[in-house]
């Protein structure tokens, strides 16, 4: 038997199991579904590229945003076809919603939330938060044991995405359905009307794009191969501790 | 290794993924799977909502200042123009198909039936919404008077507008929506007789579904057992032509 305290040999980088199976599976399913949902969503948006607040809104009402149609390089399908965009969007949406639900339940009861995502009391101290922000701006990434824990800003963004942004996207999506409005009238009222819900759906989708861009940047800066491998096989090479 | 994530890479990546998705959608199995999502949504919504769950009704002060007309603004056929010229006095609504007693109803007869008034939100598949006050005759007493036969499963609405190539606009709903209390044949919008742009003299309101279901310029209501023999067989003009979902509750 090996002893419990297995000191890694300095020459050999330490490999750990960074992400569990459900996290990896959900991550890549999301990468696919969110792409389909975003691209087909822009295709749907192109049918009426205006956004309003309130219950109603059509061409002669006052929009808060009027855009040109999104280009064919980003819409699904790559030409204007509202019916096909809707088929893509409405096929991907229920899979996405139930996957999120399962992931939330797994995170809650499987310990992921308590172990990896919940804030520790000392992390919320203003000095700690400020230090985290400074470290991020200076691109000074944690090393050694600290690299195995999410930092405060990471936790905040993952919690924000999983428990706020994604549910808002799903719920505002549901409120655009006249059938769901009859089934759950309180839901559309919660968002201040169908056109408000449509606006919130759009805004949240673009906040998620912002998250995606920062996420990509961070992966690239933190060492893309190691990061991507940890999300495929789970194996992660712990960065050597800074002296 | 260098990973350059500029706009060009993003555009190329997106274009490549798109091309992949578009090719996938041409595959018959994938296409069928994508189209079948409509069945899931219909099943899920019907499971969640009570059979007679009502669409939200609004207060008079919430009505849109202008109710946007869409689709055909005027059928402009010789037949329709003749009907319009004398105030639809010669217009008749025919109720046919799998019924025990076919009906032919004039506008005056419809006006004499009990009315329902509802201020509801019209949601276009394109994304916009307009709130209007509709007055009309519930479909249920008309179907009851015509005595639906046992085999009847769908109600088809045939319209006066010719969409080109002799194909008329038509739509269909199942009996669950046909007998819903808010499903009415409307002859007035915002306290005025229905204007031509909004579907004069009579249009369908089926409030738990999208705008393309709200057939305008109604001429004939037909009870059928199956949608197969009608138009392109998909249950509606846009369903046949563009591939819209037959169930438009989402």
From TrEMBL, chain A:
It comes from the Bacteria. The chain crosses the membrane at residues 25-45, 88-111, 158-180, 200-225. It is found in: Cell membrane. It is a multi-pass membrane protein. Keywords: Cell membrane, Electron transport, Heme, Iron, Membrane, Metal-binding, Transmembrane, Transmembrane helix, Transport. Residues 18-234 form the Cytochrome b561 bacterial/Ni-hydrogenase domain. Belongs to the HupC/HyaC/HydC family. This is Cytochrome b561 bacterial/Ni-hydrogenase domain-containing protein. InterPro entries: Cyt_b561_bac/Ni-Hgenase, Di-haem_cyt_TM, Hydrogenase_cytochrome, Ni-dep_Hydgase_cyt-B.
TrEMBL record, chain B:
Pfam families: Oxidored_molyb. Residues 89-224 form the Oxidoreductase molybdopterin-binding domain. Transmembrane segments: none annotated. It comes from the Bacteria. PANTHER family: BLL0505 PROTEIN (PTHR43032:SF2), PROTEIN-METHIONINE-SULFOXIDE REDUCTASE (PTHR43032). This is Molybdopterin oxidoreductase. It comes from Sphingobium fuliginis (strain ATCC 27551).
């Amino acid at each position: 038997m090996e002893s419990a305290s297995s000191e890694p040999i300095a020459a050999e980088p330490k490999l750990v199991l960074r992400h569990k199976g459900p996290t990896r599976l959900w991550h890549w399913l999301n990468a696919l579904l969110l792409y389909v949902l975003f691209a087909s969503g822009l295709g749907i948006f192109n049918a009426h590229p205006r956004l309003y607040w309130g219950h109603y809104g059509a061409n002669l009402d006052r929009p808060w945003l009027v855009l040109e149609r999104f280009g064919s390089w980003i819409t699904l399908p790559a030409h204007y076809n509202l019916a096909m965009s809707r088929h893509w969007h409405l096929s991907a949406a229920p899979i996405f919603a139930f996957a999120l639900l399962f992931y939330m339940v797994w995170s809650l009861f499987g310990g992921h939330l308590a172990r990896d995502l919940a804030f520790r009391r000392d992390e919320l101290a203003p000095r700690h938060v400020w230090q985290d922000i400074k470290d991020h701006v200076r691109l000074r990434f944690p090393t050694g044991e600290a690299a195995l824990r999410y930092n405060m800003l990471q936790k905040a963004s993952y919690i924000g995405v999983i428990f706020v942004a994604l549910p808002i996207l799903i719920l505002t999506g549901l409120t655009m359905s006249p059938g769901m409005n009859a089934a759950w009238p309180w839901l559309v009222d919660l968002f201040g009307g169908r056109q408000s819900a449509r606006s919130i759906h759009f805004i949240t989708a673009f906040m998620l794009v912002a998250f995606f861009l920062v996420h990509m940047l961070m992966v690239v800066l933190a060492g893309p191969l190691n990061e991507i491998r940890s999300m495929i096989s789970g194996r992660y090479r712990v960065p050597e501790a800074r002296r | 290794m260098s990973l350059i994530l500029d706009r060009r890479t993003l555009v190329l990546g997106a274009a490549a993924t798109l091309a992949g998705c578009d090719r996938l959608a041409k595959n018959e199995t994938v296409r069928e799977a994508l189209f079948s999502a409509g069945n899931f949504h219909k099943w899920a919504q019907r499971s969640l909502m009570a059979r007679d769950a009502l669409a939200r009704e609004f207060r008079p002060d919430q009505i849109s200042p202008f109710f946007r007309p869409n689709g055909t603004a005027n059928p402009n056929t010789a037949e329709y123009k003749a009907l319009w010229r004398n105030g639809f006095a010669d217009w008749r609504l025919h109720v046919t198909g799998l019924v025990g007693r076919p009906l032919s109803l004039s506008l005056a007869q419809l006006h004499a039936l009990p009315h329902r008034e509802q201020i509801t939100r019209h949601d276009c598949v394109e994304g916009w919404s307009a709130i209007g006050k509709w007055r009309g005759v519930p479909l249920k007493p008309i179907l009851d008077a015509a005595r639906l036969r046992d085999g009847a499963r769908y109600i088809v609405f045939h319209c006066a507008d010719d969409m080109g190539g002799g194909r008329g606009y038509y739509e269909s709903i199942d009996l669950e929506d046909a007998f819903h209390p808010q499903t009415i044949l409307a002859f007035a919008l915002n306290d005025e007789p229905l204007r031509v742009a909004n579907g004069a003299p009579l249009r369908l309101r089926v409030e738990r579904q999208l705008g393309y279901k709200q057939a305008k310029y109604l001429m004939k209501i037909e009870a059928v057992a199956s949608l197969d023999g009608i138009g392109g067989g998909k249950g509606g003009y846009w369903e046949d032509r563009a591939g819209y979902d037959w169930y438009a509750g989402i």
